[in-house]
Amino acid sequence: MSKTTTGDLRVAVLGVGVMGADHVARLSSRISGAQVVVVNDYVTEKAEQIAAGIDGCRAVVDPLDAIADPDVDAVVLATPGPTHEKQLLACLEHDKSVLCEKPLTTDIETSLAVVKREAELGKRLIQVGFMRRFDHEYARLKALLDGGELGRPLVMHCAHRNPAVPTSFDSAMIVRDSLVHEVDVTRFLFDEEIVSIQIVKPAANPGAPHGLADPQIAIMRTASGKHVDVELFVTTGVAYEVRTEVVAEKGSAMIGLDVGLVRKTAPGIWGGQIAPGFRERFGQAYDTEFQRWVDAVRVGGTTQDYTDGPGAWDGYAAAAVCEAGVASLNSGLPVEVAMVDRASIDGA
Amino acid sequence: MSKTTTGDLRVAVLGVGVMGADHVARLSSRISGAQVVVVNDYVTEKAEQIAAGIDGCRAVVDPLDAIADPDVDAVVLATPGPTHEKQLLACLEHDKSVLCEKPLTTDIETSLAVVKREAELGKRLIQVGFMRRFDHEYARLKALLDGGELGRPLVMHCAHRNPAVPTSFDSAMIVRDSLVHEVDVTRFLFDEEIVSIQIVKPAANPGAPHGLADPQIAIMRTASGKHVDVELFVTTGVAYEVRTEVVAEKGSAMIGLDVGLVRKTAPGIWGGQIAPGFRERFGQAYDTEFQRWVDAVRVGGTTQDYTDGPGAWDGYAAAAVCEAGVASLNSGLPVEVAMVDRASIDGA
Amino acid sequence: MSKTTTGDLRVAVLGVGVMGADHVARLSSRISGAQVVVVNDYVTEKAEQIAAGIDGCRAVVDPLDAIADPDVDAVVLATPGPTHEKQLLACLEHDKSVLCEKPLTTDIETSLAVVKREAELGKRLIQVGFMRRFDHEYARLKALLDGGELGRPLVMHCAHRNPAVPTSFDSAMIVRDSLVHEVDVTRFLFDEEIVSIQIVKPAANPGAPHGLADPQIAIMRTASGKHVDVELFVTTGVAYEVRTEVVAEKGSAMIGLDVGLVRKTAPGIWGGQIAPGFRERFGQAYDTEFQRWVDAVRVGGTTQDYTDGPGAWDGYAAAAVCEAGVASLNSGLPVEVAMVDRASIDGA
Amino acid sequence: MSKTTTGDLRVAVLGVGVMGADHVARLSSRISGAQVVVVNDYVTEKAEQIAAGIDGCRAVVDPLDAIADPDVDAVVLATPGPTHEKQLLACLEHDKSVLCEKPLTTDIETSLAVVKREAELGKRLIQVGFMRRFDHEYARLKALLDGGELGRPLVMHCAHRNPAVPTSFDSAMIVRDSLVHEVDVTRFLFDEEIVSIQIVKPAANPGAPHGLADPQIAIMRTASGKHVDVELFVTTGVAYEVRTEVVAEKGSAMIGLDVGLVRKTAPGIWGGQIAPGFRERFGQAYDTEFQRWVDAVRVGGTTQDYTDGPGAWDGYAAAAVCEAGVASLNSGLPVEVAMVDRASIDGA
Questions:
Q1: What's the pTM value of the predicted model, to 2 decimals?
Q2: Which stretches make up the Gfo/Idh/MocA-like oxidoreductase N-terminal domain (chains A, B, C, D) (predicted)?
């Protein structure tokens, strides 16, 4: 890879709320070879304030203008989900690589439309922000499974726990915003699609907001019959806990055990701290995700030129599983996942 | 408790196969206050051989004679399940305390008959061999939950793995012989009944014998809506692994993590050994179970006079859940557990 | 081993303070094949109270009468150290097996005298209460080392921490009462003598009683040049922590890591509990030590007939190392350990 | 911090052997805001080859020319230790910030000369490459100690193990190249100087090269009486292991326990992998060290403007302790550390 002053990737970050502002800081201070040249937010003042702190960066009012801007090489989407479809299509139209925070779009029809449009271009421009694929531990687990030493995976157990969620969080968001990560992890680790899903609702946590079905247990089955269960619990009051265990023919492997500094204190307690939130747990994963994306785009590559970069199809597939998950949340019954045949798309 | 030479509990051990022979050795060499005075087995030679090695012990051909023997104070049943009903009823008739290895009997009708007969006597004579209740870690978990510090339990995840099983093991035995322990653990830890069960069959382990549905996932719901899932996997090729995690309102707790001696060796590996079998994992639990049973019976107490000794009702309840489990194994659907009302029995 | 009612080992327990009372309870309720028939204490009322609670047990005022009693088969010494010499010699005179809590005697001259007297009898009657040899983890570590898989041991690191000690505890007792266990562990694991010892005194814990040199670091060298360091810290305020790590040619191994039930609670803490005291940490070791001693003595065996039972020589060797340790505590310099040649004794 | 294309820090990397080449890659592909514009090596071809792979980078034959180059803003020294003195003084003369891999210089006299020269300038330009200060775990340990929760530290135990070393490694290098890191860790964590050191030589590892005193045990004492012991073992054949435990008034804390992906495989083994080398163990620390250095230097700051950046004095102090360590290695006795009074320098 060559790196020159003039070769820095010029990035527009659309949406500078909590997540987008993180990405601006990431690109400005920890990622090599990129500059944030444009920021945009529907709260204009916020965009202007952030732009003012970065040399050579300006705020643009209309996100579509930012995408079209000839001084912008690539785009990061951290805007609300309902705006993604239009913005992604604009990126495709202007031939701009885009790193899109999940969800790809908010429903499977528009997700499929985006997938098809990109396929027609014959060029991969879209990467979806499933950052766990870039986490050291998930990467090691993937390598272990692919190496074949454990034989064929049979079962996976996951736990995904948040200490708390905003009051706006509802039962379906536990599927769409939390479970979606394990949906992608399943597809990533097993390289196959999920064919059915069932959501079990235990008696709710008394400490959860009234009406929130929390915890939930998701039970998924893959095309080849692998079983995946996921405990989703977003009001634990404890910390951010993500654990994944794969049970295979010749052994099992687990990631997400806490460790690091271990203390012993009165009255006879040993232990350590759990990551308080996803930033602490997955900060390295975000950095790696962005560095690899910048590296790939700078050399004129497509976003899938590096290992495991999830594309538009991965966003669509995750949306399809979550759609079925929400249906099961309502019915309590197993629901088949409805997806188009991928071959039909790639052949478009 | 008083202990005198003459006060030793005189025990008959019926069935001296692998498990029964273990119990003979346990009572003879590690348990205080008991003597094995009679052994019995349908293989007469085996009983005679064992009796010959113990001072004051003789072999008896008919198990019912052993039970009736006036020189026998109490009975340990390690005979095949189909013989339990008749032997238990004989113990009740002769007013002998009995420690009965699981299952209580092989079907819920006869189990219920035993429960009712004991209830009519107004006296608890039967203890069922759910030894996990006496394991240090389960006891600590129970104490933690009862202490209330973690709040109300909501979810439990269990794994129950065997390296291998005899060739005679079939899919239903995974429910009746393996899952039965988690059924009792659930009832013990949560102090409530299980109301429904579903068995999920993932694609089978290629290394499992043809036709054996292994692994299996059991999904249970308790009366108050707690969720329990159990991975059952009896051909792992690894070791004997039993893990239990309870997720509650204010935190979670896990037992069954391996540790002890930790080694570091070439080529850069750290770790330790997993218990190879149930004897190594639960040896202490068996010893404690027997010592407490001997202590209780010697002082003329009933078998439930000490904490958590599982009785005939616990054997019946476990059988009822497993019966529903086997039905679900065949149908793939959730099955309600059918049990009589306990109040109707105790009022008998 | 045969076990009959009449064959129970009749034991006299001398000294029924905290430790001795523990041993009475152990022999009465957890150890198979033994009865406590005599107890003795310089506080007569205490002995009588304990005797009253055990069928067939009586209090005896003079410890030497208890030893001489023809109804006593074997003796447990839990009396103060200064009385040990006379009591041990009485046991030898009356041909009674004796399990003697450390120290063997309070100085190396009298220890040596006891060793010589026993050697003259040509019969091993004395076992010293170094219970760690019977702890599961130490036994596994010993087996690992003896198996040769790790090659030749080179270095050992130990930590020995108490939450608190009685106000009577002085700096030399940290050597004589605490370090003595690691002295025996070193000799047990490495099968060789310790030839020099140095005690380092870091700045004292501000929370330690005035004048107590706590923590202390002991640095020992074995005959073949192995290095052992021990952190001794008896006022940690935390719990009872004992850790041992052996570093060898082909790898290392550690015991004493805490585990068991692992919890996660607010605010983002994971961990578990450390054993509060030596009873919890080494309870199993005491039980195993006593059961093996009873088993060996009952069959007419000597106390060294079972693996690793430490004898009078081990008590003498430990005393010699501690003697040198106390000298180093005072001088700050390394001190050679002065011991007679074992061959000269065994040839006596 | 502002970041513009023209604002990138222009760095000369002197010495592009294994470590220097790592740093070139680091600055080019993972560090934000820096460009490598000049490389130098005494093997000219190597420098030219590396320069050819980086846009805008050229090889310079004379390291002093590289330092003097007006297009170079800052310097990274990865040259052999004997060349450091001259190169550091050149950096000071040309007012260039320099990140110097350890050692500062190869003897304490020249180290002190460099410290004095920098002090005369009244400006901190030199940072020494003690990268452990930037490791997440050490940083957390430092924060824990500084927070006061554990009270005053009393004792520290360290282990520093390498699987193997080059055949050129001699006994003194174990002190100068390996122990030097724990010397800096001690000074960093405790904020005080080391006043004496003793090297203990156990019987050597039979697998170590003939004549190499390996393992070694270093015993250090700080000004306030804290005790530090370090096991140094560079031919373990296992992996790269670094462990640090601080024992304090109110508790203890340990870092360096291995974890991550935990596997269970036949025959009943659980465990994971240990980092094979320092790159895997401390890669994040090097990245953080470089990013903070670049950030500080770019805004015109001195190298000590960010937390814990070790300066020339830290290099001198480490050299003084190692000098005493080598003396003790030869004599076997404790050696006092001879250092000038820091106040005398800062007042220069």
A1: 0.93
A2: 9-129
Q: Are residues B47 and B123 in the same domain?
A: yes
For the cut 60, the answer to whether the pLDDT of residue D71 exceeds it is yes
DSSP state letters, C85-108: HHHHHHHHHTT-EEEEPSPSSSSH
Question: Of D106, D98, D113, whose CA–CA distance to D68 is shortest?
Answer: D98
Output the pLDDT for position D311.
92
Q: What is the dihedral of CA C169, C175, C178, C184, to 10 degrees?
A: -160
Q: Does D140 touch chain C (CB under 8 A)?
A: no
Are residues B174 and B244 located together in one domain of the fold? Answer: yes
Integer Cα distance of D165 and C4 in angstroms? 64
Q: Which of B114, B32, B40 is nearest to B77 (CA)?
A: B40
Q: Token pair of A117, please? A: 């449009």
Give me the average pLDDT of each 10-residue run along chain A (348 residues).
58 97 95 96 97 95 98 97 97 96 95 96 93 95 96 97 95 96 97 97 96 97 98 96 96 89 90 92 94 87 60 95 96 95 76
Among B8, B4, B2, CA closest to B28 = B8
SS3 C250: coil
Chains contacting A with at least 3 CB pairs below 8 Å?
Answer: B, C, D
Where does residue A70 rank: exposed (0-12), middle (13-18), buried (19+ CB within 10 A)? exposed
pLDDT (0 to 100) of residue A299: 79
* Residue in D264, D267, D274 nearest the CB of B269: D274
d(CA C298, CA C1): 9
Half-sphere exposure of C311 (CA within 13 A, CB side): 20
Conformation bin of residue D151: beta by default, left when phi > 0, alpha when psi is -120 to 50? left
Q: In terms of domains, do B193 and B338 share one?
A: yes
Most confident of the following: B294-303, D178-187, D275-284, D292-301: D178-187
Q: Given pLDDT bands bounded at 50, 70 and 90, which one contains residue B307?
A: very low
Preferred mutation among C274, C278, C279 to probe A, highest tally of A CBs within 10 A:
C274
Q: Is residue D332, in this structure, part of any structural domain at all?
A: yes
Selected residue of C231, C258, C262, C328 to mutate for chain D interface (largest D Cβ count, 10 A):
C231
> Residue B308's pLDDT is what?
57
pLDDT at B299: 79
Chain D contact for C252, CB < 8 A?
A: yes
The answer to whether A175 and A212 are in contact (CB under 8 A) is: no
Amino acid at B150: L
- Predicted confidence at residue B123, as pLDDT, reads 86
Residue ranges making up the domain that contains B73 = 9-132+283-314
Q: Are residues A104 and A241 in the same domain?
A: no
Q: Averaged over C84-90, what is the pLDDT?
A: 98
**pLDDT reported for residue B348:** 45
Pairing mode, if any, of strands C126-128 and C262-265? unpaired
Residue A308's pLDDT is 57
Whether residues D287 and D229 share a domain: the answer is: no
Report the pLDDT value the prediction gives residue B234, as an integer from 0 to 100: 97
Task: Decide if pLDDT at D94 tops 50.
Answer: yes
Q: Which residues of C touch A241 (CB under 8 A)?
A: 264
**Which letter, b or e, does each residue of B171-192 get, where b requires 16 or more Cβ atoms within 10 Å of its Cβ?**
bbbbbbbbbbbbbbbbbbbbee
Q: Are residues B149 and B66 in the same domain?
A: no
Tell me the per-residue pLDDT of B5-14, one tens digit each, with 9 for 90 and over. Answer: 457 999 999 9
**Total residues belonging to chain D:** 348
Residues A124 and A103 reside in one and the same domain: yes
CATH code at position B107: 3.40.50.720
Work out how many domains chain C is built from and give that number: 2
ipTM: 0.92
